[in-house]
């Protein structure tokens, strides 16, 4: 694939080929201001973010399985190949390890790759390339070379998909030093977190909650949202802090409405960025409420909620009025579509935790 792409100016023409590589890799793609947009779905917001990033910097490349001709399974990349040409948005073979391997090589040569892994469960063949190379290259080169690669992965459940299409992979990436991990919950966050990710000199795992792909809201593409590493309080409350991310933010907000009918006031914290983690916002919320429930789709054992519960207990112990509880998926393989609603944590499972936290009978 690399042979059909023109190199950026000055790449590979120096007597010392490492000089231009290092110089180009140190310059992230700019965030060029564009006209505001309104009424975008998350799919459209991600597509707009990719378009705007490619328009702002000709080093940005988009590639993956069916992303060019088809426009992606969810049509997220629709129109990019027609607009920017086959050299900048192109299809790859069905080989996830090769997709990330190509991205590593392109990043070393000064490009800004944005590869797509078609579904979360398909990321496992690329695990070695991501963990052993993408995440480690800065350390391996003593900080001389950054790999500014943003790996887009449609993730999580809630759409009734078949096996291997509804995985929660965040814990694998969070355990891997050297990777940023972000999960948008709204179209606006999807646009700006992706723009920030593409501009970052660090490798980013960008997990897109498929169940929120068709959610629509007003998106202002001219006024940047908070950057990677910032959480947001989506709803203020006084009794229990609910900490979650991605598609479950909407579930938490729905639970907060029902909880209010019972006289319980829930504060909902949307993490947005899992690494780096904005623990200051989490801690400040727990200090206000004295109680915390962590919610995520993945299995309970060693899920991200375990890390959050441990850290809250360690650093906010004297502020807690009850143990930190978790509303999660089960420690089983992801079920068939007909059992998905039973397996996924929902409003009922979250409110059960809230009831325990506030000490109701």
Estimate the mean pLDDT confidence. 90
CA radius of gyration is: 21 Å
Strands in their spatial order, largest beta sheet = 9-11-10-13-14
- Helicity, as a percent range: 25-40%
| Low-pLDDT ranges | 1-29
Oligomer kind: single chain
Q: Please report the distance between the alpha carbons of the first and last residues.
A: 62 Å
Q: Quote the beta fraction.
A: 15-25%
Global shape: globular
Protein name: 3-methyl-2-oxobutanoate dehydrogenase subunit beta
Cofactor: thiamine diphosphate
Catalytic activity: N(6)-[(R)-lipoyl]-L-lysyl-[protein] + 3-methyl-2-oxobutanoate + H(+) = N(6)-[(R)-S(8)-2-methylpropanoyldihydrolipoyl]-L-lysyl-[protein] + CO2
Enzyme class: oxidoreductase
Using brief descriptors, characterize the structure shown.
361 residues; alpha/beta; 5-stranded mixed sheet; 4-stranded mixed sheet; 13 helices; 17% strand; disordered N terminus; Transketo_C/PFOR_II; oxidoreductase; magnesium ion binding; 3-methyl-2-oxobutanoate dehydrogenase subunit beta
């Amino acid at each position: 694939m690399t042979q059909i792409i023109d190199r950026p100016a000055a790449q590979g023409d120096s007597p010392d080929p490492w000089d231009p590589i290092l110089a180009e890799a140190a310059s992230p793609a700019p965030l060029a201001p564009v006209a505001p947009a309104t009424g975008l779905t998350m799919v459209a917001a991600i597509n707009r973010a990719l378009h705007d990033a490619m328009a702002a910097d000709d080093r940005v490349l988009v590639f993956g399985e069916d992303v060019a001709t088809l426009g992606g399974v969810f049509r997220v990349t629709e129109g990019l190949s027609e607009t920017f040409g086959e050299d900048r948005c192109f299809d790859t073979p069905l080989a996830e390890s090769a997709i990330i391997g190509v991205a590593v090589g392109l990043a070393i040569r000064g490009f800004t790759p944005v590869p797509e892994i078609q579904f979360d469960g398909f990321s496992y063949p690329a695990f070695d390339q991501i963990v052993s190379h993408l995440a480690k290259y800065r350390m391996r080169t003593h900080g001389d070379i950054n790999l500014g690669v943003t790996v887009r992965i449609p993730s999580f459940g809630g759409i009734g998909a078949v096996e291997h299409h509804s995985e929660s992979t965040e814990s694998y990436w969070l355990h891997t030093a050297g990777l940023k991990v972000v999960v948008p919950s709204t179209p606006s966050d999807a646009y700006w977190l992706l723009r920030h990710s593409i501009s970052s000199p660090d490798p980013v795992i960008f997990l897109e909650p498929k169940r929120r792909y068709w959610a629509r809201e007003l998106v202002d593409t001219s006024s940047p949202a908070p950057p990677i590493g910032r959480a947001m309080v989506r709803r203020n409350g006084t009794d229990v802090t609910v900490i979650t991310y991605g598609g479950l933010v909407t579930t938490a907000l729905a639970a907060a409405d029902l909880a209010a009918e019972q006289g319980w006031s829930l504060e909902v914290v949307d993490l947005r960025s899992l690494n780096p983690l904005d623990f200051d916002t989490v801690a400040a919320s727990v200090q206000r409420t004295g109680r915390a429930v962590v919610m995520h789709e993945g299995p309970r054992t060693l899920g991200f909620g375990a890390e959050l519960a441990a850290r809250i207990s360690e650093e906010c112990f004297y502020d807690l009025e009850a143990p930190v509880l978790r509303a999660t998926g089960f420690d089983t393989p992801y079920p068939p579509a007909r059992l998905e609603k039973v397996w996924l944590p929902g409003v009922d499972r979250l409110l059960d935790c809230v009831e325990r936290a506030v000490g109701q009978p």
